[in-house]
Hints:
By secondary structure, this protein is an alpha/beta fold. The protein has 9 helices and 10 strands.
Amino acid sequence: MHETGHSFYKYSMLSKSQISFIKSLHQKKYRKENGIFIIEGIKSIAEFIQSSYQIHSIYYLAQYQPLLPALPANIKLFEVNNAELDKISTLQTPQGILALVNIPKNPVLDVKQLQNTFSLVLDDIQDPGNLGTIIRTADWFGIKQIICSNHTVEVYNPKTVQATMGSLSRVNIFYQDLAPLLSETKVPVFGAVFNGKSMYELDWGKEGLVILGNEGQGISPEIIELITDPVTIPRIGGAESLNVAVCAAILCADISRNFQK
């Protein structure tokens, strides 16, 4: 339950140790060590407050206080000035409010969760913006889970979190070795490749895993062998390739259209 009677603390200055702690969370090593990541912007913060994620603390410019939704009493609140926000923000142009959020325990995927639904599988995606956009796209199309290879970029990278625009609060992200999972699953394994069946001729059915490969290398050879249904987005023009996040959006749209027939 959210309490409305939260007392707002007003600090004239953040301590050096607070600033240094928050700045350390810009790096993966310290996010992992402390189990905390950063989100920025009132819209994203509001969505995380309404989710199952635990907010650790919020740092805001005075004008953002009235925009905050009702908060649980255990969230620490700090009013900051522009200079302090500039120091702790991961953005070139800070958005007036920043929150620290506890990283949940690594969820374990039950293969039963793959039945009667579609999930995206990411094989070594490296660009944090791409990962964030894919999460946001999955959320738009109602895809609830994304399974990442162990070498896919970290989901709590600030650029990834920013690119999800709050959608990370609604999509479950799993990291694991893909080969064993793909070997034991009973649902179809679709893979986005150049020489697959045209998505316009494909029967997606009602369930499946949809694999998207690394930006430069595509899907790795050991994973390609485990694809049961290779699929391609037919090329009409002259572009050599498609951005992986755009590819994800096109395939999700086609799956969604198939569902609505």
